[in-house]
TrEMBL record:
InterPro entries: Amino_oxidase (IPR002937), FAD/NAD-bd_sf (IPR036188), Protoporphyrinogen_oxidase (IPR004572), Zeta_carotene_desat/Oxidored (IPR050464). The lineage of its organism: Eukaryota, Metazoa, Spiralia, Gnathifera, Rotifera. It catalyses: protoporphyrinogen IX + 3 O2 = protoporphyrin IX + 3 H2O2. It is an enzyme of class 1 (oxidoreductase). This is Protoporphyrinogen oxidase. It is found in: Mitochondrion inner membrane. Its cofactor is FAD. It comes from Adineta steineri.
Length: 509
């Protein structure tokens, strides 16, 4: 009997699960129903950093999220394509959890409008840094920064890549640049990558903005010239017929972000249930992979428990550094070294529930702390405000403190005990929010190497990686947040694109 063609997916986080989902769909549509899809996960559970813990009823079943807690409906600084948001909505519909789980946040709600920064003992709205707060922390209205950038001839040259700090200083000069970096980009990039403006790449992180500036000599000029060109800016917008922005216009016009009623892990659990019922997908947990070998006609995956899986194609949905460790050091020396060049930061995520109601100085999404304020925290999320629709009936107030990121080692957070971390948090929350309460319950998550930082040269590293895969004809596809986007919807959409481009016929011939 002929062996079924097999695609192996390594890594059971969201990227691995949606790889299996889209691949199974594609196999059916491409009339390859006998395709075997094997998903191998190291631990006993699926979902990676997406993890939701529902507290007992005595704590009103509040939900603690370890990782992401909201999904965006609008494309933003960090997003890959405007279609990634509606692709996730479609997925929720296909999995039949849209009606029961989708909790949108109105564009006009405080949890969307009020993204704050901690500045000089105050919480200031990021949207009106130079207006409401008496001209501080930004000294001038936005038009001044815009006009300077538009007319400045200085720093108008081609750049392969540079740090975000250097990009802003080049375009806005040292004086205006310093303000924009310290009070806008430093905190905002903490709130996305937990990363530093001196390392993060302008080309990879501010992709659209950097491209516009390089093409038009000025970022504002580029924005004005292309403002009616939205669709042309998005080269892959037509790839999927089922993603029609018009179908979702009522949602997209009204809402900005959303959360899932029972937590983000609902998406993972529903995907797992769906995949378990698919005849051609096998989900195998507790498989600690030790080695990956690319042979002439197949890929061999061996595990610590001496199991050997053979596949025609491999999809790596693990972080880049983990994949690097599994490859043969002699045969794939350069590929390993490039994969290892993608850096990751450690995070500490502390969920806290307080007995007292309305502990927040202002209804908001939360606040970020510029490095200049010298805090041990990166930012604080106001979960009770974010989850207002469902949590308003619940007692108490809930927030999440984020620590670490690019500053994890410098602050020696790895050496702190839980008690020490809690003491730091209590002191900082007292200072920043005037919060003098002890939490009823808390949970401390230590997320090692959780968020990739696309540092200067990231695109060159990716180009090298893709070139090696092509040159050596490796049957390998890379998905996950290590490469092309860190948001959940971007990872899901990017994975769908990769599965669409995967040529199953050549893979299995
Ligand atoms: C303080 C640390 C962090 C906070 N959130 C994250 C970290 C590291 C993680 C994160 N936040 C965003 C993304 C992008 C993906 C996505 O939403 O799809 C990730 C991985 C989104 C985001 N959060 C904030 C901003 C300005 C953005 C970008 C939105 C856009 O692209 O339009 C603000 C923000 N993040 C945190 C806080 C406390 C905060 C604001 C006050 C926490």
């Amino acid at each position: 009997m002929q062996k079924s063609p097999t695609v192996a997916i390594i890594g059971g986080g969201i990227a691995g699960l949606v790889s299996a989902y889209y691949l199974a769909q594609k196999a059916t549509l491409s009339k390859i129903p006998h395709l075997r899809i094997l998903l191998l996960e190291r631990s006993s559970r699926f979902g990676g950093w997406i993890r939701s813990e529902q507290l007992p009823t005595k704590y009103d079943s509040h939900i603690f999220e370890l990782g992401a807690r909201t999904l965006r409906l609008q494309s933003g600084v960090a997003s890959l394509s405007s279609h990634s948001a509606i692709n996730t909505l479609k997925l929720l519909e296909q999995l039949n959890i849209f009606d029961s789980q989708f909790c949108p946040i109105d564009k006009t709600a405080p949890a969307n409008k009020n993204k704050l920064i901690y500045y000089n003992k105050n919480l200031v709205n990021l949207n009106d840094l130079s207006f409401i707060y008496g001209g501080k922390p930004l000294r001038y209205p936005p038009i001044v920064y815009g006009l300077y950038e538009y007319f400045s001839q200085k720093g108008r040259y081609a750049v392969q890549d540079e740090s975000i700090k250097s990009f802003i200083y080049r375009r806005f000069g040292d004086v205006l640049g310093e303000e924009i970096v310290e009070y806008l980009l430093d905190p905002v990039l903490k709130g996305i990558y937990a990363g530093s403006v001196t390392n993060l790449s302008a080309r990879s992180v501010l992709k659209k903005v950097f491209d516009l500036e390089q093409r038009h000599g000025s970022l504002l000029r580029g924005m004005l010239k292309t403002r009616n060109n939205k669709q042309k800016e998005d080269p892959i917008h037509n790839l999927f017929n089922d993603l029609n922005l018009k179908d979702y216009s009522s949602i997209l016009n009204k809402y900005a972000i959303y959360y899932l009623k029972d937590g983000m892990e609902t998406l993972v659990k529903t995907l797992v249930d769906h995949l378990k019922s698919s005849s051609n997908v096998e989900l195998i947990s507790n498989q600690h992979i030790q080695k990956i070998k690319f042979l002439e006609n197949n890929v061999e995956i061996s595990t610590r428990s001496n199991e050997i899986y053979s596949a025609d194609h491999l999809i790596s949905a693990m972080p880049s550094f983990e994949l690097a460790n599994l490859l043969d050091d002699k045969q794939h020396e350069i590929l390993r070294s490039r994969l290892n060049q993608i850096s990751f930061v450690n995070m500490i995520v502390i969920n806290l529930l307080y007995l007292k109601e309305n502990i927040f100085p202002k209804e908001a999404f939360g606040y970020l702390i510029p490095s200049r304020e010298q805090s041990n925290l990166l930012g604080v999320l106001f979960d009770s405000c974010i989850r207002h629709t469902t949590d308003k009936q619940k007692h108490g107030s809930q927030l999440t403190v984020m620590m670490g990121g690019a500053w994890y080692d410098q602050l020696r957070l790895g050496q702190c005990t839980d008690e020490q971390l809690l003491a730091i948090v209590t002191k900082e929350l007292k200072k920043q929010m005037n919060l003098d309460e002890k939490p009823l319950v808390y949970s401390i998550g230590r997320l090692n190497k959780a968020i990739p930082n696309y540092n200067v040269g990231h695109q060159d590293v990716l180009d090298d990686i893709y070139a090696i895969i092509r040159r050596d004809k490796l049957p390998l596809t890379l998905v996950g947040n290590s490469y092309r986007g860190v948001g959940i919807s971007d990872v899901i959409y990017d994975t769908r694109v990769e599965m669409e481009y995967l040529n199953l016929n050549s893979t299995i011939s």
